[in-house]
């Protein structure tokens, strides 16, 4: 099969999983706040999309799916510069597309995928020699999100190492402006968040792949060529782990600059694999198999997680609980011709607003019943298990 066909197959498969994921999710409260009350770039992306295509879950999450597709193409193009074999480049984007953290960023309303896309766009333009255009991307990114300060710092180190005077000056100025505009919290005392940070990274990559990522970055540090991808990923990982010694971090701000290192992981793995005779590749085959199986399991659990409610006593402990219920509840209310509801739970009210259920009217919805009042019970049921009950009063 041609390389372009394999790449297209990876992209289409990834998009199909994402579309299924979108169909099974409800809007979360934090996402509703971004849509209805936000002022960030993410707000304008989702606001434009929902106004253009209607207030649906697909329209809400479409910008991030499109950014995901664009990022896969950019990562493939970047990989062409140092991954010489076709299979390496295809495995690289397939592995990236299977990362738990990447799949979450691709369908959830947050700034992570904006950071990934702009970073990959900069890397692509810079490594292919379009330096002026790459500098413009860096300037635009300053207004996109506060997390880009870490990218500017990584580029500062890269430009010192490679004596890139223009990039050094620009990254230093942008880092200063980012600190001035957004600030950075460095307070707190050592509280053992280092292990927490490692745990989050392991969840983003899957445990064994994260361990191999650490090995890859270390091996390149001591033995191999240090390209732009390595400087960004290595600097970000080290800075985040050092900062985690004294404070709890939002690792969502750091992870976008580390996941782009997947082509480096693939390069180091296959270089090590191919220098060995076939009979001495046993452990490499086992390692690859374990990583692939774990990523596949993570993918299945991420998208087909509702059956897990059967084995979890408290539904609120479910990994996707905050992304469920609202859409199903709104559908039930609409089937009863109820488009306005009074509810004390302001978070749920904002989520229902997305599905066309406004505040007010003659009906009241509560989480508990009142003995002396007539009510109708509404159960949210997944796979024959009651997940949440509501009480409807007139």
Describe the structure.
The protein is an alpha+beta fold and 394 residues long. It has two domains: 302 residues, no CATH class; 73 residues, no CATH class. Helices cover 63% and strands 7% of the residues. It is built from 17 helices and four strands. The chain has a four-stranded mixed sheet with strand order 1-2-4-3. Helix 17 links the parallel strand 1 and strand 2. Helix 5 packs across helix 14. The longest helix has 23 residues. It starts with a helix and ends with a strand. The relative contact order is 0.10. The mean pLDDT is 91.
Write the layout of secondary structure elements.
Elements: H1 3-23, H2 29-37, H3 41-53, H4 57-79, H5 86-98, H6 100-107, H7 112-127, H8 131-142, H9 148-162, H10 165-182, H11 193-205, H12 207-222, H13 228-243, H14 262-274, H15 282-303, H16 326-335, E1 340-343, H17 346-354, E2 358-366, E3 376-382, E4 385-393
Parallel strand pairs: 1-2
Antiparallel strand pairs: 2-4, 3-4
Helix pairs in contact: 1-4, 1-5, 2-3, 3-4, 4-5, 4-6, 4-7, 5-14, 7-8, 8-10, 9-10, 9-13, 11-12, 12-14
């Amino acid at each position: 099969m041609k390389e372009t066909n394999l790449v297209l197959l990876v992209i289409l498969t990834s998009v199909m999983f994402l579309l299924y994921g979108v169909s099974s999710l409800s809007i979360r409260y934090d996402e509703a706040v971004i849509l209805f009350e936000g002022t960030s770039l993410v707000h304008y992306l989702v606001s434009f999309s929902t106004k253009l295509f209607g207030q649906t879950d697909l329209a809400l999450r479409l910008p991030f799916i499109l950014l995901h597709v664009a990022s896969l193409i950019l990562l493939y193009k970047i990989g062409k510069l140092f991954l010489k074999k076709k299979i390496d480049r295809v495995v690289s984007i397939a592995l990236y597309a299977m990362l738990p953290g990447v799949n979450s960023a691709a369908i959830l309303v947050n700034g992570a995928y904006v950071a990934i896309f702009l970073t990959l766009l900069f890397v692509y333009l810079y490594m292919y020699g379009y330096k002026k255009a790459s500098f413009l991307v860096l300037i635009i990114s300053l207004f996109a999100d506060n997390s880009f300060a870490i990218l500017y710092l990584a580029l500062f180190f890269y430009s010192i190492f490679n004596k890139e005077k223009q990039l050094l000056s620009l990254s230093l100025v942008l880092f200063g402006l980012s600190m001035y505009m957004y600030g950075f919290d460095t307070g707190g005392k050592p509280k053992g968040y280092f292990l927490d940070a490692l745990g989050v990274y392991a969840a983003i990559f899957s445990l064994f792949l994260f361990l191999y990522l650490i090995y890859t970055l270390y091996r390149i540090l001591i033995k191999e060529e240090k390209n732009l991808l390595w400087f960004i990923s290595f600097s970000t990982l080290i800075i985040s782990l050092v900062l985690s010694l004294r404070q709890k971090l939002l690792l969502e701000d750091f992870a976008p600059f580390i996941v782009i290192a997947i082509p480096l992981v693939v390069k180091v793995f296959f270089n090590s694999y191919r220098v060995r005779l076939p009979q001495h590749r046993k452990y490499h085959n086992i390692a690859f198999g374990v990583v692939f199986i774990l990523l596949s399991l993570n993918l299945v659990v991420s998208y087909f997680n509702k059956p897990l409610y059967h084995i979890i006593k408290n539904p609120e402990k479910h990994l996707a609980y905050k992304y469920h219920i609202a859409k199903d509840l709104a559908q039930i209310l609409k089937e009863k011709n109820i488009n306005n509801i009074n509810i004390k739970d302001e978070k749920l009210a904002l989520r229902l607003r997305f599905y066309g259920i406004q505040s007010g009217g003659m009906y009241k919805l509560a989480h508990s019943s009142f003995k002396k009042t007539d009510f109708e019970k509404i159960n949210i049921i997944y796979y024959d298990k009651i997940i949440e009950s509501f009480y409807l009063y007139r």
